C-alpha cells in the first residue's frame, strides 16, 4: 500500500523563495488587482509562450469561456460535447444558449466532426469543441463546417496549454481558444484562465466584460462580470511559467513509464499522442473494455484500496447532470455515454513518484 494518499493531480508550485521574491514588488506598488504590473507581465510572457497574437487573462478558465461566448453575442443553439468538465456546458447555458450535444470519437474523445453537420439548424450560432485530455480536435474539418454555415468556433482548450498541432500553437485555432490555469492544470496561476482570440475588437469586449462592462470612467455599456486576474495569481503564473518546460518533461517521463507497462495489456485502450501533436502530457486516461475482465469501477476500487485515487473523468456526462434532468438525452451521444462508464484517469503530475506509477500498473496488469 502506498503510504500517503495519491490523487489524480498535484498542483505545481515554484520554489517558495522565488514566489516571495516575485510578490515583494506588490508591497511597493500596493496594487493588488485591476490589471497591474504582474498582470501585464504575465500577459506578455504568455503571449510569447503560447505563440498567440492576442490574449486576455481572466480569473479562471470558466469565465474565459463564459465571457467569450457573451462577447460573441451568440444566440440560439451551440453544438458541443457532453464528454467534458461541467464548465463547458454551463458556460453555454449561463449565456441563455441551448447546448446541442454531438457525440465524440472513441479514438481520442474529441467531438466527432462527421456528426456535426446533421445537428446544425437555422438557430445554430456556434460550435464549442473541447481538446479533451489535450487531444486536439479535427480543427480543419471544424473550420470548414464553421465557414460553410457561418458559425463561430470557441475551443475549450483548458487541457491543451502550450500544445502545438502541425507546428501551430493551439491558441490560434477558432475565433477564441480558452485556457484554464486552475491549480490542477499543467500550468497554474492558483485560479486563472485566458482567452486567446483573432479579432482585437472581440478582445476589447472580453476585457470590458471581465471588468463589469466598464468602457470609461462614466460609461458602462456592457452587462459584465468581475473576472479579473489578481496580482498574486499573476505572480504565481510568472513563476510557474519559468518551470513549465521542465514540468512537461517530467510529465512525459511519467507518461512513458505508464505506457511501457500498460501497452500490452489486453482489453484496455490507452490515450496515444496524436500524429503531428506536440503534447503537454496532461492526463492519462484508460478505457476498460469488456475483454479486460474487470470493470472500470472495479479498477477504481482496487486502486482506492491502495490509497491511489484515480478519477472517473468524465463521468457522468454533462447531459446527464441532475441540474439538466429531463432536458437532454444521453442516448443520443452513445459513444460518449459508453466511454464515460469505462474510462478512468490515472494520477499524472510532474512530481509523481515512479513507485506509484509502478504500483498502479501492477494493479492494472493484475499481477
Ligand atoms: C478546468 C476546466 C475548465 C474550467 O476551468 P477553471 O479554470 O477551473 O474555471 C473548463 N473546461 C475544462 C475541460 C476543464 O477541464
If you had to describe this structure to a student in words, what would you say it looks like?
The protein is α/β, with parallel strands linked by helices and 367 residues long. Helix content is 35%, strand content 16%. The protein has helices spanning 16-29, 37-50, 61-71, 86-93, 139-149, 200-209, 231-242, 244-262, 296-305, 334-342, 354-364; strands spanning 6-7, 55-58, 77-80, 98-101, 124-128, 152-156, 164-165, 168-169, 176-180, 193-197, 214-216, 219-220, 268-270, 277-278, 284-288, 308-309, 343-346. A seven-stranded mixed sheet has the order 2-10-9-6-5-3-4, sandwiched between helices. Strands 8-7-14 form a three-stranded antiparallel sheet, with no helix packed on it. The mean pLDDT is 97. The protein binds pyridoxal-5'-phosphate (PLP). Pyridoxal-5'-phosphate binds next to α3 and α4. Pyridoxal-5'-phosphate is lined by residues 60-62, 84-85, 87-88, 130, 156, 158-159, 180, 182, 193.
Kindly summarize this structure in a few lines:
This protein is α/β, with parallel strands linked by helices.
For the biggest sheet, the summary is:
7 strands, mixed
**How do the SSEs run, as a string of H and E?**
EHHEHEHEEHEEEEEHEEHHEEEHEHEH
The tally of helices reads: 11
Question: Strands across the major sheet, in which order?
Answer: 2-10-9-6-5-3-4
**What portion of residues is helical?**
25-40%
Write down the Rg. 21 Å
- Count the E strands: 17
Structural class, from secondary structure content?
alpha/beta
Chain-averaged pLDDT? 97
Amino acid at each position: 500500500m502506498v503510504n500517503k494518499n495519491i490523487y489524480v493531480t498535484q498542483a505545481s508550485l515554484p520554489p517558495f523563495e522565488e514566489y516571495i521574491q516575485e510578490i515583494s514588488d506588490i508591497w511597493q506598488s500596493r496594487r493588488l488587482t485591476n490589471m497591474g504590473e504582474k498582470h501585464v507581465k504575465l500577459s506578455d510572457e504568455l503571449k510569447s509562450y503560447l505563440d498567440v497574437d492576442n490574449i486576455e487573462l481572466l480569473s479562471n478558465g470558466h469565465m474565459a469561456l463564459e465571457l467569450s461566448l457573451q462577447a460573441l453575442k451568440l444566440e440560439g443553439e451551440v453544438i458541443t460535447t457532453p464528454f467534458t468538465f461541467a464548465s463547458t456546458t454551463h458556460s453555454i447555458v449561463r449565456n441563455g444558449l441551448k447546448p446541442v450535444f454531438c457525440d465524440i470519437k472513441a479514438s481520442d474523445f474529441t467531438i466527432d466532426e462527421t456528426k456535426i453537420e446533421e445537428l446544425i439548424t437555422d438557430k445554430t450560432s456556434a460550435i464549442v469543441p473541447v481538446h479533451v485530455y489535450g487531444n486536439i480536435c479535427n480543427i480543419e474539418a471544424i473550420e470548414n463546417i464553421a465557414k460553410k454555415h457561418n458559425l463561430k468556433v470557441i475551443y475549450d482548450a483548458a487541457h491543451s496549454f502550450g500544445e502545438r498541432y502541425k507546428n501551430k500553437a493551439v491558441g490560434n485555432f477558432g475565433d477564441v481558444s480558452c485556457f484554464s490555469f486552475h491549480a490542477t492544470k499543467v500550468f497554474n496561476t492558483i485560479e486563472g484562465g485566458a482567452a486567446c482570440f483573432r479579432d482585437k475588437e472581440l478582445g476589447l469586449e472580453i476585457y470590458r466584460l471581465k471588468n463589469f462592462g466598464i468602457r470609461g470612467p462614466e460609461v458602462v455599456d456592457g452587462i459584465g462580470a468581475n473576472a479579473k486576474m489578481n496580482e498574486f495569481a499573476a505572480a504565481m503564473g510568472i513563476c510557474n511559467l519559468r518551470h513549465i518546460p521542465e514540468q512537461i518533461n517530467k510529465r512525459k517521463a511519467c507518461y512513458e513509464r505508464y505506457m511501457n507497462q500498460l501497452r500490452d495489456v489486453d482489453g484496455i485502450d490507452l490515450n496515444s499522442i496524436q500524429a503531428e501533436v506536440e503534447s503537454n502530457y496532461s492526463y492519462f486516461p484508460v478505457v476498460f473494455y469488456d475483454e479486460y475482465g474487470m470493470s472500470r469501477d472495479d479498477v477504481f476500487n482496487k486502486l482506492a484500496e491502495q490509497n491511489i485515487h484515480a478519477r472517473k473523468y468524465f463521468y457522468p456526462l454533462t447531459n446527464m447532470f441532475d441540474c439538466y434532468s429531463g432536458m437532454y438525452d444521453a442516448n443520443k451521444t452513445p459513444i460518449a455515454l459508453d466511454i464515460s462508464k469505462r474510462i478512468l484517469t490515472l494520477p499524472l503530475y510532474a512530481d509523481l513518484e515512479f513507485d506509484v506509477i509502478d504500483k498502479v500498473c501492477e494493479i492494472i496488469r493484475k499481477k
